[in-house]
Amino acid sequence: MELNGVRVSRETQERLQHFAQLFQKWAKTINLVAPSTIDDLWRRHISDSAQIFQLHPVTDHWVDLRSGGGFPGVITAILLAEKGAGRVDLVESNQKKAAFLRVCLRECEARGAVHAIRIEEAPAAIQNCDVISARALAELETLLDYAEPWLRRNENLRLLLHKGRDYERELQKARGRWQFDLVKHQSVVERDSVILEFSHLRRLI
């Protein structure tokens, strides 16, 4: 099986397929993603999430903010299982979604843990990380504010953030308060989307 042109093992394929089955089951009772996108689960969500991991497959410790339906956190944790190293801390304050995420990690033998807490509380529970990921969560300024406590502990921290067509406006606002290096990765799934990779972040005001 290939994900975005990258071949994965049969074990990883089976884990991803099991996750998809769990997702379909749980999505009948709790709102995990927009209902209109469920029929396109593999392309819109699984492949879209996998491309984040594929940008930095050697990363050891991820934090995924508001993991919701498991994107990209559970997918990252499943792909780390193939590597046999690393972990993902998934932050999700909704208790029903957190329960779903825990089931997915356990049954898919993925490398991660779920923290059913608010994002603002997460830096106290998760001391360090190498990469922060988030998908369809908030504007860039807010996401950078969320990351700041971890930045103080790791100046080499990277952020990998999914953004849609309006990202240039958000970048312009963020540059008024932050200095950073930025790499724009064109989404391999959605034509109008990008993954913004931030490094060397420093608050200006």
Automatic annotation (TrEMBL):
<feature type="binding site">
    <location>
        <position position="135"/>
    </location>
    <ligand>
        <name>S-adenosyl-L-methionine</name>
    </ligand>
</feature>
<feature type="binding site">
    <location>
        <position position="71"/>
    </location>
    <ligand>
        <name>S-adenosyl-L-methionine</name>
    </ligand>
</feature>
<dbReference type="InterPro" id="IPR029063">
    <property type="entry name" value="SAM-dependent_MTases_sf"/>
</dbReference>
<dbReference type="InterPro" id="IPR003682">
    <property type="entry name" value="rRNA_ssu_MeTfrase_G"/>
</dbReference>
<keyword id="KW-0489">Methyltransferase</keyword>
<keyword id="KW-0963">Cytoplasm</keyword>
<keyword id="KW-0808">Transferase</keyword>
<dbReference type="Pfam" id="PF02527">
    <property type="entry name" value="GidB"/>
</dbReference>
<comment type="function">
    <text>Specifically methylates the N7 position of guanine in position 527 of 16S rRNA.</text>
</comment>
<comment type="similarity">
    <text>Belongs to the methyltransferase superfamily. RNA methyltransferase RsmG family.</text>
</comment>
<dbReference type="GO" id="GO:0008168">
    <property type="term" value="F:methyltransferase activity"/>
</dbReference>
<dbReference type="GO" id="GO:0032259">
    <property type="term" value="P:methylation"/>
</dbReference>
<protein>
    <recommendedName>
        <fullName>Ribosomal RNA small subunit methyltransferase G</fullName>
        <ecNumber>2.1.1.170</ecNumber>
    </recommendedName>
</protein>
<feature type="binding site">
    <location>
        <begin position="119"/>
        <end position="120"/>
    </location>
    <ligand>
        <name>S-adenosyl-L-methionine</name>
    </ligand>
</feature>
<keyword id="KW-0949">S-adenosyl-L-methionine</keyword>
<keyword id="KW-0698">rRNA processing</keyword>
